[in-house]
Design a protein that fits this description.
about 0% strand; about 600 residues; mainly alpha
């Protein structure tokens, strides 16, 4: 191992000497560079190689490259680039290659390597590496990366086409690769048409549409094969979106649209795509004369495009009558309202109309009701707006009676406007329909009463005791906490006594009362024991900690002679598994000097 490291370090010496000679670094700096490199080289030669060692070594060399570039710029030194800069770059490439093939599951090394090759112009190195990677990783995403590299960086379209054919042979239903193939051929065709147009002498005759159409035959073949093999509406939409980015493709766009409508007329995404094309002023599938259509859509106003888009959506929701279609429709209108400041009233009116129609169709989801309420809230506080808001709130909870958020919003509104009569009625309805999910509504009610009518707080607690179990359980504990701040201990004990027989039973409730008793200036042992006994009677077979707390209480505050009795009761009351756990914890407690001292003092 050592001889290989020493050999590599010796090979670095000419490079470091050149750095000194042209005064990029002094002698001390070059020694430090060599020392660090030697350390990294030894780490990389270890039997168990570590990902972080590669990263640190690569990071060191790339930082060194940046420092060299900075010093060359400041001092104007341009000599020995091949001996220094290229040597470092080649070292980084060597390190990346080792790391990529050592850690084949870590794709980040490959991504960073390609970025490095791109930054420093090693395009061929990137191509060679990707060809080798395709022998290891067979997933279509690696073929996609290789193809994009050949097209965008290496500018080698023939290699890209070859890779795509090989990739599609292995992955005949890959959407990713078909899109790459389609885009490649489309770019080449459009580029040829553009070049031919520039070279052609200007005449008054129109362009030869037949000649242009013939150019797209190969693209159409790829399109048809992709649609046949993948058989998914999404690939047709992706192909259409790709096509619309290029000039002279109106006929091809129209073909894809017609095929899409004929094959997937019942798909919401098709209607959504058609409507959004209207919004952008793109060619429609219903026009016979593409050239005329393009000239017309260029002159279409923003209002006309929005109206055309809305008309397509209206036909869509009438045809499909699905929640997904309504969601796509309203999402588009929300985007329209959020983008641009023109025609605010027109856009807002369309959105409100769509929300109302969606409600009438009973296909509006929770989020859109909430947005509708938000819109009405911002409209103003006048009587008409508030009346409309109350109506929408009622519609929302009637349409989606199990929605906690909608009941929360409706109850909040009525607390502000009519906290006594209508709010109380809403609370009853919400509790009936939501059941245990109405807890947030009860919390809101409690906060509101405590802030606005504190004298009615106890009345709310009393009502909550007969609510669904989780609400009653939380409110019982909250009732005791409130009583600590507002009543004396005798009244608190009376409240506890009135509640402990009411289901649902909860040890947390008894623990809260024990905590309150232990807070008193003079602890009444009888009262604390009573809380423990009631808790044990109700839920004594389910909680080891509660029994242990009882034992500790007797050791510390009560009578330590009672502890063995409690121990025997616990072992008999707890389930076998919990009994074993209790025995173990009790044994540990008995060996604790602190508790033994308490026992001795007693």
């Amino acid at each position: 191992m050592a001889e290989f490291v020493e050999k590599r370090c010796e090979e670095m010496i000419p490079e470091l000497e050149q750095m000194e000679r042209i005064k990029l670094f002094d002698k001390i700096e070059t020694r430090n560079i060599l020392k660090k490199r030697k350390d990294y080289e030894y780490k990389l030669e270890r039997h168990s190689k570590c990902r972080e060692d590669f990263l640190k070594y690569i990071g060191h060399e790339t930082t060194l490259l940046g420092l060299i570039k900075q010093r060359r710029y400041k001092s104007g030194i341009t000599q020995k680039k091949s001996a220094i800069d290229y040597a470092i770059k080649n070292r980084v490439i060597r390190l990346y290659k080792k790391a990529i093939f050592r850690f084949t599951d870590d794709n980040q090394f490959l991504i960073n390597y390609l970025k490095f090759c791109k930054e420093f112009g090693f395009k061929n190195c990137g191509s060679r590496m990707l060809n080798r990677i395709l022998q290891i990783h067979r997933e279509d995403k690696f073929w996609h990366i290789a193809v994009r590299w050949e097209i965008e960086e290496a500018k080698n379209f023939e290699n890209a086409r070859t890779l795509l054919l090989r990739g599609l042979y292995l992955h005949p239903t890959s959407t990713l690769l078909y899109l790459d193939m389609y885009k490649l051929e489309l770019e080449l065709v459009v580029s040829r048409i553009k070049t031919a147009g520039k070279n052609k002498k200007p005449t008054n005759l129109p362009a030869d549409c037949g000649e242009i159409s013939n150019q797209f035959i190969k693209v159409e073949i790829i399109y048809e094969e992709a649609v046949e093999k993948v058989n998914d509406v999404r690939i047709m939409i992706d192909l259409l979106n790709t096509t619309q980015r290029y000039e002279n493709t109106e006929a091809l766009q129209k073909k894809i649209m017609n095929d899409m409508i004929n094959k997937y007329e019942k798909e919401p995404l098709v209607w959504d795509t058609m409507a959004r094309r209207e919004l952008k002023g793109l060619p429609s599938p219903y026009s016979n004369d593409t050239a005329v259509e393009v000239s017309c859509t260029e002159q279409k106003s923003v209002r006309d495009r929005i109206a055309s888009c809305n008309e397509v959506y209206l036909r869509a929701v009438e045809t499909l009558k699905s929640e997904e279609m309504w969601s796509l429709y309203i999402d588009c209108l929300l985007e329209i309202n959020q983008k641009g400041k023109s025609l605010p009233n027109f856009k807002r009116k369309l959105l409100k109309t769509a929300l109302f129609q969606g409600h009438q169709a009973k296909l509006l989801t929770e989020q859109y009701y909430l947005y509708w309420m938000g819109m009405l809230n911002t409209d103003g506080k006048d009587e008409v707006s508030q009346k409309k808001l109350a109506e929408v709130l009622r519609w929302a909870t009637e349409a989606l009676p199990n929605s906690e958020k909608l009941w929360h919003s409706r109850f909040s509104y009525h607390l502000r406007t009519d906290p006594d009569d209508s709010a109380s009625e809403i609370l009853v309805q919400a509790t009936k329909l939501l059941g245990e999910k109405s807890l947030s509504v009860w919390r809101m009610k409690l906060r509101h009463v405590q802030a606005k009518n504190p004298e009615k707080t106890e009345q709310v607690f009393q009502s909550a005791l007969y609510a669904p179990q989780n609400i009653a359980q939380e409110m019982k504990i909250a009732y005791l906490e409130w009583a600590v701040e507002n009543k004396d201990i005798d009244e608190i004990r009376k409240i506890y006594k009135n509640m402990y027989l009411l289901p649902p039973f909860s040890l947390e409730f008894h623990k809260k009362m024990i905590e309150i008793e232990m807070m008193q200036p003079e602890i009444v042992l009888k009262k604390v024991r009573e809380c423990f006994e009631i808790g044990i009677l109700q839920l004594g077979s389910t909680d080891v900690k509660f029994w242990m707390d009882f034992v500790k209480f007797e050791f510390k505050h009560g009578d330590c002679i009672q502890a063995p009795k409690i121990y025997s009761r616990a072992v008999n009351a707890l389930t076998p598994t919990l009994a074993d756990q209790f025995i173990a914890e009790y044994s540990i407690l008995k060996t604790n000097p602190e508790w033994m001292n308490i026992s001795d003092k007693s």
